[in-house]
Amino acid sequence: MSRIVYVNGEYLPEEEAKVSIFDRGFLMADAVYEVCSVLDGKLLEFEGHVARLHRSLSELKMAEPCTDEELLEIHRELVRRNEVQEGGVYLQVTRGAADRDFAWSKDLTPTLVLFTQAKSIEHSPTASTGIKVIAMEDQRWARRDIKTVQLLFPSLAKMEAKAQGKDDAWLVEDGYVTEGTSNNAWIVTRDGTIVTRDLSTDLLHGITRASVMKYAKEAQMKVEERKFTIKEAQEAAEAFFTSASAFVTPVVEIDGATLGDGTPGPVARRLREIYLAESRARAI
Questions:
Q1: pTM for the predicted model, two decimal places
Q2: pLDDT digits over 201-236, tens only?
Q3: How far apart are CA 137 and CA 173, in angstroms?
Q4: Which residues belong to the active site?
C-alpha cells in the first residue's frame, strides 16, 4: 500500500507528492524540521517539538504554516491513514517558493510537508548493545540551536564513522564535545554524576535531552550541565546519547577507548526505562 503524505493542505500517495523546484528549501536549505516519535499509535512529546518549531521559525523570521491544533490533527491523520503503531512523523517547513535569489520576499507562503516512517524504535538493537563513536572536528554553521535541514556535514560525519566500522561521531570544537551528528551527548563520571553540555547556539536544544534531565533529577540523580572533552568521556564510567527517535542509547566505545566492560551501563539503562515509561504515559 502506498504511503500517504501531507503536502500543503493535501493528503496524497507519496508518488504523487510534489514541491516546486523553486522552493527555497530545495535551493537554499531555507527550511526547518521536527521529528515526533510514535509509540502505540500515539505521539511522544508533541508539545515540546512544536515549541521548538516555533523557536526555529522565529529565529529565521519564517512564517508559521498553520496553527498548533492543525499541526496536531495532521500528525494524527497521517498516523491513522498509514496505520503507524511505532515509528515517527517527519515535519518540514520551508520559507516557500520564489525565483532563486539570496534575498527573499516577505510575502512568501510557507511550504509544509509531513510524512510517516514505520520502524522499530522501542526495542532497537543498539539499546541493548550500545554504540561505538569516533571523534570529529565540528564544521557545522554557528546556529546549531536552530533545527534546520542543513545536514550535510552531520551526514558526512556519520558516513565517516561507518567507514571506520563504528556507528556515529561525536563532534568536537575548541577541544570540547558539542553533540553527536543527530543527538545530544552525555557521560556519567566515576562518582555517578551525569554530565551533558550546557545549552547555547553551539548545539541543538534537544526535547529528549530536556525530559531526560528532568526525569534524572526527579530520580535523585546528580546532573551537571557543562563542557567535557573526549578524554574525559573516554575515562567516564558510562556514556550515552539522547534523541527523539533513539530515546536514551548507551555508548560503549569512544574514539577507540572501551568504556567499562564494553556493555551498556546501569545509569543509561535506567534512564531509558524511565524515559519510555514517562513518555508513553504522556503520549497523545
A1: 0.94
A2: 999 999 999 999 999 999 999 999 999 999 999 999
A3: 6
A4: 147
